[in-house]
UniProtKB/TrEMBL annotation:
The lineage of its organism: Bacteria, Bacillati, Actinomycetota, Actinomycetes, Micrococcales. Keywords: Flavoprotein, Oxidoreductase. This is FAD-dependent oxidoreductase 2 FAD-binding domain-containing protein. GO terms for molecular function: steroid dehydrogenase activity, acting on the CH-CH group of donors. Residues 11-538 form the FAD-dependent oxidoreductase 2 FAD-binding domain. NCBIfam families: PRK12834.1. InterPro entries: FAD-dep_OxRdtase_2_FAD-bd, FAD/NAD-bd_sf, KsdD_DH, Succ_DH/fumarate_Rdtase_cat_sf. Pfam families: FAD_binding_2 (PF00890). Gene3D superfamilies: FAD/NAD(P)-binding domain, Succinate dehydrogenase/fumarate reductase flavoprotein, catalytic domain. The keyword Cell inner membrane does not apply.
Length: 556
């Protein structure tokens, strides 16, 4: 095959080379099929968003959990997933089935399959989305967040290697700077795709690239898989699809994904005959901070917080139970949107930031990404904040570090939007919380949950600071962090059956068309329902990509 044709015929065409696309390509190539992968970005971006991720994966009753004394089970995870998802629509028929299938995968085959591909895991399991409601409500009942050894690049590497090996054998063709603008449809079946050839670019990974058109292309395919991602880099589209249940959309947001995550392929796929569902379900964070060293426009980083920081709204009022750091992402987002302001605050101590602040993303965790044990021991168990966290304390626009509460409040008020902060309310909230910490008994639910969290060895070891008074000089200096809404994931997308076949509005499969990854709501058009349990986005790409690749190959 010519490496750069204007017209091409292939067995399986894959639109989007993120994790789901790489997995699908590897599966189809392993079945002996000719595969062509197209993406609108330069090849430096092979692996897509997954490369930038922290590498969190959701497993059920894993060896890592058992070694830490965590008693997990399929039944408990099923209870948590469905309590979290809140499926309540006619459109949730396939998402429910995907959820059942994915839970089986996470419980049985997923970990062993990844281990066979050389993927390893950090031995301490994280506890994300802790919930704080009743047993049938949202949240993880136990820690399930398994960090890939090597983070996002570590999990991409195995699947990228398989695709590039197949490329060397002539089975796979990778075409960068190809933007699909339409699916080719013949007699109701999708038979390929066409679009624009964009100008070559030598931009580094994640950097926004031009959309200058220098040509056109057309590819005929027996099967086409759409794995083009979501909408998080397109703030206009995020606002357009923002649901009323989450309040009004923010006027200002920062981006947790590169600009190429623009959602453009979703409309193209819909015009090709597929049905889009659950577009109003989305997953954005409220612990976003402006990146002092940005890669893409409005580049933000999410804080993965431990449970000790005091969370205040823009006026200085403490958030209600159970909206504590790390407990309920969408519940907190909905609450904060009702305040009328686009930002909120963490108030904490040096002792808390040293133990509890981790920044999301492969580039913010050089110890785990680089598989550097010595750096890991120093950064996670040594004194002082981890290097990337210290860099934000020193250079980040959203960080205020002071020795006294009065100076801290003055620094907070000096930041943009800080003038609405009630200084006396902030002081009262911090002092009241500190009075509660002096006793073994407390009515402060956050302190009670903090003490409960430290019963888990993983939290006590590397994620949760010993309870202390924030205003204790020995724990200082004091720190405030201004937090922004950070766009991230689409939870809805292209409706698919359990073979990853895209479905038409009437429910019948669109011949020749498949979807995987975030473009398909990580399976079925919304496997998470309304909320995610964390560690489930990469896993959804793996699972749906594997199914799409195998199904497309079997149909060719």
């Amino acid at each position: 095959m010519s490496p750069d044709p204007a017209r091409l015929t292939t067995d399986v065409l894959i639109v989007g080379w993120g994790l789901a696309g790489l997995v699908a390509a590897g599966e189809a190539a392993a079945a002996g099929k000719r595969v062509t992968i197209v993406d609108q970005e330069p090849r430096t971006n092979l692996g897509g968003q997954a490369w930038w991720s922290f590498g969190g994966l959701f497993f059920i009753d894993s060896p890592e959990q058992r070694r830490l004394g965590i008693h997990d089970s399929f039944e408990l995870a099923h209870q948590d997933w469905f309590g979290n998802a809140g499926f309540d629509r006619e459109e949730d028929t396939w998402p429910r089935r995907w959820a059942e299938a994915y839970l089986q995968f996470a419980h049985r085959e997923k970990r062993a399959w990844l281990r066979e591909k050389g993927v390893g895991f950090f031995p301490v399991v994280g506890w994300a989305e802790r919930g704080g409601y009743t047993a049938l409500g949202p949240g993880n009942s136990v820690p399930r967040f398994h960090i890939t050894w090597g983070t996002g690049p570590g999990i991409v590497a195995s699947f990228r290697r398989a695709v590039e090996d197949a490329e060397a054998r002539g089975l796979v063709t990778i075409l960068p700077r190809r933007r699909v603008t339409r699916l080719l449809v013949q007699d109701g079946a999708v038979v390929g795709a066409a679009g624009d050839v964009l100008a070559p670019s030598g931009a580094a990974r994640g950097v926004a690239t031009s959309r200058e058109i220098v040509g056109a292309f057309e590819i005929s395919a027996a099967a086409t898989i759409v794995s083009s991602g979501g909408i998080g880099g397109n703030h206009e589209l995020v606002r357009r699809q923002w649901p009323a249940r989450l309040g009004t959309p923010p006027e200002t947001m920062i981006s947790g994904v590169p600009a190429y995550v623009d959602g453009s392929m979703l409309e193209v796929t819909e015009h090709g005959g597929a049905r889009l569902i659950n577009g109003d379900r989305m997953w954005h964070y409220v612990e976003g901070i402006q990146n002092w060293d940005p890669v893409w426009p409005d580049h933000g980083i999410r804080i993965l917080p431990g449970p000790s920081s005091i969370w205040l709204d823009a006026t200085g009022k403490r958030l209600p139970v159970p909206l504590f750091p790390g407990y309920d992402t969408l519940g907190t987002l909905a609450h904060l949107r009702a305040t009328g302001y686009d930002h909120s605050w963490f108030v904490l101590s040096r002792q808390i930031i040293e133990k509890e602040f981790t920044l999301s993303g492969s580039e913010q965790n050089p110890d785990l990404t680089g598989k550097d044990v010595q750096l890991l021991l120093k950064s996670r168990l040594g004194k002082g904040a981890a290097g990337p966290v210290q860099a934000f304390m020193d250079r980040g626009a959203d960080f205020v570090v002071r020795d006294s509460i009065d100076d801290l409040i003055a620094g907070m008020r000096a930041l943009p939007g800080g003038d609405v902060l009630d200084a006396e309310r902030v002081r009262r909230e911090v002092e009241a919380r500190d009075r509660e910490i002096d006793n073994d008994f407390t009515k402060d639910a956050q302190i009670a949950m903090l003490r409960s969290a430290r019963a888990f060895r993983g939290d006590r070891l590397i994620r949760t600071a010993a309870p202390h008074r924030i205003l204790d000089p020995k724990a200082g200096p004091l720190i405030a962090v201004k937090l922004h809404v950070l766009t991230r994931k689409s939870l809805g997308g292209i409706e698919t059956d359990l073979d990853a076949r895209a479905l038409a509005p009437g429910g019948a499969p669109v011949p020749g068309l498949y979807a995987a990854g975030e473009a398909s709501g990580f399976g079925g058009g919304g496997v998470h329902g309304y909320r995610a349990l964390e560690g489930t986005f990469l896993g959804g790409c793996l699972f749906s990509g594997r199914i799409a690749g195998r199904s497309a190959a079997a149909a060719v």
